[in-house]
Design a protein that fits this description.
The protein has about 425 residues and is of the alpha/beta class. It folds into three domains: about 170 residues, FAD/NAD(P)-binding domain (3-Layer(bba) Sandwich); about 55 residues, no CATH class; about 160 residues, FAD/NAD(P)-binding domain (3-Layer(bba) Sandwich). Helices cover about 20% and strands about 25% of the residues. It has a five-stranded parallel beta sheet, with helices on one face. The radius of gyration is 23 Å and the shape is globular.
């Protein structure tokens, strides 16, 4: 049984991505006890799925490793993975949280040796790589996962393969009798850091994401570019494995659109500018990128990065809202149709691969939130006094890049600390 010792002077942080980890660490290092709840099997969130940050193009290990280490060795932080908040009752300073814990079937004896994975053959969808590939049903979420523990997929529980995985483990780490648990604990304030999800590209019918295999999303392209991704970093198009040397990036795919997402997601332009570097790195001068855009939004310190890409002779910018995409059945190329609004020339341009810069949608949108939380029209949590001791952090509150998400998380942690301090004064 998992026990959580918490009081009304504890801060609950929901979501273990970069924002949730930051909020938890800021609060804990100020002397507050924190329970960090993450629905996935590891911390890190969307940032752990990036190949590079912009504008420095460094790997996310730069920030995540430090935060993971700080979290691991901070006694004030209790981490619950594969956990979901199902209910929160009470008021600011005196909440009761109910959390459902799904079984991992692997206990803390795990050394991540991989023997359990070697013992099974069944494969399941690889969610870490946006289902672009498959992994064994006994798996480590990714190389840098924290906690560094394997997971047994529920689909093989009760089968000989599960027993084989257990038999292969030398450390008695496989517990096939784990059951779903429900725990309750007190908290004085709640930081909601549930992050974002890519907008469903299949809803943008003219671009054919659900019909054309060589139309993918920007987050999928990020995983293709990563040496630890499904193609080992090779830019290969899904239809035939051909090298994707001629790549189109369609901006505002579903964003700034009354039929989809009304808001600008802020990161999409910079993400595509960054990804043109992946194409150049993979193929040198043979790698060609074309960016179809309405506006390029690169603010503050990103302007220099934008200017560098703009001046790259291998990158072409076309000011246009692409009208439709059609995939050629013989070549597999995707032909984009539209009008260049700078001169109003019609085009029908073929590309090896088309990448949709999909918008950022808050993960809280459409969720049955445990309490009535004030959100804007797009589903982002607002800083409203009616939210009491609830505070949105990172991309739960706004579309933000990593830097600004971390700043937002720090601010939310400080607001939560103020609530806890009021509780302490009242009880003192």
């Amino acid at each position: 049984m998992t026990e959580v010792v918490a009081t009304n002077q504890t801060i609950l942080v929901v979501g273990g991505g970069i924002s949730g980890m930051t909020a938890a660490l800021e609060a804990a290092e100020c002397g507050k006890n924190v329970v960090l709840v993450e629905k996935n099997a590891m911390l890190g969130g969307r940032v752990s799925q990036l190949y590079r940050y912009f504008p420095k193009l460094c790997h996310p290990v730069c920030g995540l490793e430090i935060n993971q280490r700080r979290t691991k060795f901070n006694p004030r932080i209790k981490v619950l993975t594969q956990a979901e908040v199902t209910e929160i009752t009470g008021s600011a300073g005196d909440y009761t949280a109910t959390v459902k814990l799904s079984p991992r079937y692997v206990n803390e004896n795990c050394t991540a040796c991989g023997a359990c994975s070697d013992a099974v053959q069944t494969e399941v969808a690889d969610s870490y790589n946006y289902n672009l590939g498959k992994v064994k049903a006994a798996y480590l979420p990714h190389k840098m996962a924290y906690p560094q523990r394997f997971v047994i997929d529920p689909s093989i529980i009760g089968t000989p393969e599960a027993e084989a995985a257990k038999a292969a483990c030398k450390y008695n780490a496989i517990d096939l009798d784990m059951q779903e648990e429900t725990v309750q604990f007190k908290a004085g304030a709640v930081v909601w850091a549930t992050g974002w999800k890519p907008y469903d590209a299949a809803k943008i019918q003219p671009y054919g994401y659900d019909r054309f295999s060589n139309v993918i999303t920007s987050v999928e392209f990020e995983r293709l570019s990563d040496p630890h991704g499904p193609t080992k970093g090779k830019l290969l198009r899904p239809s035939d494995g051909k090298e994707a040397k001629n790549v189109a990036f369609i901006q505002c795919a579903g964003s700034r659109d009354e039929n989809h997402l009304r808001h600008c997601s802020r990161i999409c332009c910079m993400a595509s500018l960054k990804q043109t570097n992946y194409v150049r790195e993979a193929f040198g001068d043979e790698g060609k990128s074309t960016i179809y855009y309405i506006d390029i939004r690169a603010i503050d310190r990103f302007e220099d990065f934008y200017a560098k890409v703009w001046n790259d002779p291998n990158v072409t910018f076309i000011k246009s809202k692409v009208a439709k995409a059609v995939q050629d059945e013989k070549s597999g190329d995707v032909v984009l149709h539209g009008v260049n609004t700078e001169g109003y020339q019609r085009y029908a341009s073929a590309h090896d691969l088309v990448v949709l810069a999909v918008g950022m949608e808050p993960s809280v949108k459409g969720m049955n939130l445990p309490m009535e939380i004030v959100a804007d029209a797009s589903g982002f949590i607002e800083g409203d006094v009616k939210n009491g001791g609830f505070f949105g952090a990172g991309c739960a509150s706004n579309p933000l890049d990593v830097n600004r998400a971390v700043q937002s998380a720090t601010a939310s942690a400080l607001r939560a600390i103020q609530v806890i301090n009021r509780v302490a004064r009242a009880e003192g």
